[in-house]
Structure formats: C-alpha cells, structure tokens
Amino acid sequence: MANRISTLISAFGVLAGTMLLLLAVREYRAGASVLWVGLGALILTSAVATLVRDVPHSRQNASA
C-alpha cells in the first residue's frame, strides 16, 4: 500500500513539474531569463525519474 501511495505522489510530482515547465516557458516568452526554463526542465526530469523508479516497485508488490 505504501508503494502505491509513493507512486501516486510521484505522479503528482510529474504533473507539478509539467505545470512549472509550462509556466517557465510562458514567462521566458514574456522576457524572463532562460534559466527558468532550464530549472523547470531539471525539475520535470527529476520527477519523471522518480516516477520511473517507483512504478516497478508498485507493480511488484501488487502481484505478490
């Protein structure tokens, strides 16, 4: 059960990272620094990596 909750939290992290990246791109188009886009991409990449790490653990415990 704890692994499923961890996977769910990771999925919300990917959603939040995507929203942050979209906001950063919008702000960049409005004249903000390109560093915001880089930071948004880094956070999204980290969130996706965490989700990829959590999914196999969730599936492994669901079948056991």
From TrEMBL:
Parts of the chain that traverse the membrane: 7-25, 31-52
Q: Which UniProt keywords apply?
A: Membrane, Transmembrane, Transmembrane helix
Q: What's this protein's name? A: Integral membrane protein
Originating species? Streptomyces tricolor
Q: Lineage of the native species?
A: Bacteria, Bacillati, Actinomycetota, Actinomycetes, Kitasatosporales
